[in-house]
Amino acid sequence: MTAANNRRTIAVASGKGGTGKTTISTNLALVLAQQGKSVELLDCDVEEPNCHIFLKPQIHSSKPVNVLYPSVIQDKCTGCGVCAQVCEYSAIVVVKNKVLVFPGLCHSCGGCTLFCPEEALEEVERQVGIVEEGSSSGIHVIQGLLDITELMSAAVINGVKKSAGLSDIVIIDSPPGTSCPVIESVKDADFVLLVTEPTPFGLNDLKLAVGMVRQLGIPFAVAINRCDMGDGEVQRYCDDEHIRIILEIPDDIRIAQAYSRGEMIINVLHEYKGLFVQCLETFFNQKDPGLNTGQDGQ
Amino acid sequence: MDSDYSMKEIVIISGKGGTGKTSIVASLATLAGKKVLADCDVDAADLHLVLEPEVLSRNDFSGGKKARILKEECTACGKCIDACRFEAIHYPPVASRTVHALPQINPTFCEGCGVCVRVCQDNAIAFEPAVNGQWFISDTRYGPMVHARLGIAEGNSGKLVSLIRAEARKIAERDELEFIIVDGSPGIGCPVISSITGADMVVVVTEPTLSGQHDLDRVAQLTSHFQIPTTACINKWDLNPEMTRQIEARLKDQGIQSIGRIRYDPAVTRAQIMKSSVVEYTGGAISEDIRSVWRNIIYALGYFINK
Fold it and tell me: For B194-213, what is each residue's pLDDT tens digit?
């Protein structure tokens, strides 16, 4: 992912699911494309990718995401058990001098292969998902799809990010939550837009997400979806923490209905286009690139 | 079937996030008889916001180890940097370097594999159990609850989910409870798989949107792979009645039992603000929808037949 110097990556994330990450990332990407910018949209919610529902990209390439796991070379193995001792994930056990590998538990650290005294292990590949690329309305769309029953979302997310790199602006649609797949999605971003809704659940999960981006040291701001429902606690929290709110989308049943049919807000409800244009202007015209880390003096 | 004691574990998941899992679990907590609650959405746990648990026991959770450089021993040879597949070890940025800059391990990216510890010839890397979060056994107005808080930016959520389910099971067995009700997480990955394996029933809460339908399809493939009896309800069904019918028809084809529709009602948000479950908060039609879902869950479990 080596880039043009002026390339900017914005990750759209949220602690709570269903707050509007996909709505915001697809609409932002479309606004940018309509302004003639070169833009890529990475759907990093590889467990449940939904951007394609709204952008309906023409997929022109698909490639597997593989991870490494150890395979035993039987005539070299003495059944000494070093590999099982080395593995912190219980992905290898040795029973009666026979080595058993559980690929689903393997984190591909390479330890067992590195430390096998007999050089009796070799790393082989297996597929855990796919990365697809396509285009839609001038947006280069890259999406990952985790194979059902696989655990290693982060590997597929990494595959998506590696396929990017052609455009000036990259928008990342992250999975919900605050753990490994989310961190993998946002860690290289220049900026994170945290989406929430003004409810107790939304606030609680926003606080977790703020903790995460602060720990990663990435500048961020907040978007509030359905901003006129619920209570004012999210706004109050953002004020107290000096976090900027750069996008507020009203609670409009027509937005929910357009969403249910897989339609883009800015295409069917033109009056809302301005909100996304403004949000991008706030972002790109900002003199201070650390738009807001909510930590004064950092 | 054992007639005198047979506890059932019901796991509520959704595929897509934000479809209303936690709000529905809070209402089921109100409606179910003798039960223990388990909040397995450890990434973004919210059930406690409604059930206001009184914490009885608090425990550290360690999902694995983390590596730490011992400054006195390190000779900055850099072998650990080359060996780490997770790019968790780096020399400090040039600007902040002193003459003998030592490598630094970023704990957020350390996966605890221990490879660096083993390649280090100076024994300069400590490898200790990391505290990734805390888990709690609590009391609520609806009975015992097991829940957790994963540390900021910590991994190992799958292990924590397994632990919470095991602790909830212990309580259920000890107190001879009828149900374990599990609030799961969105997606189809690691924490979801940990929360459903071996459960008696999965309830998928979906919504009448193309995204909801797409995500339901993927989660249904997952539960079918693990051969877990699966049911589904459609929340906010009246947002798009046509899509609701379409999803219900699809459920039938997939062999998933449809256990009801829950209407859209702003009372759901108001109940959340009042720290109430929906059925506590309102006697309105939505509460009847949820009661009906619970009756259908019981029916689907064959609970009455076994009795």
Answer: 999 999 999 999 999 999 99
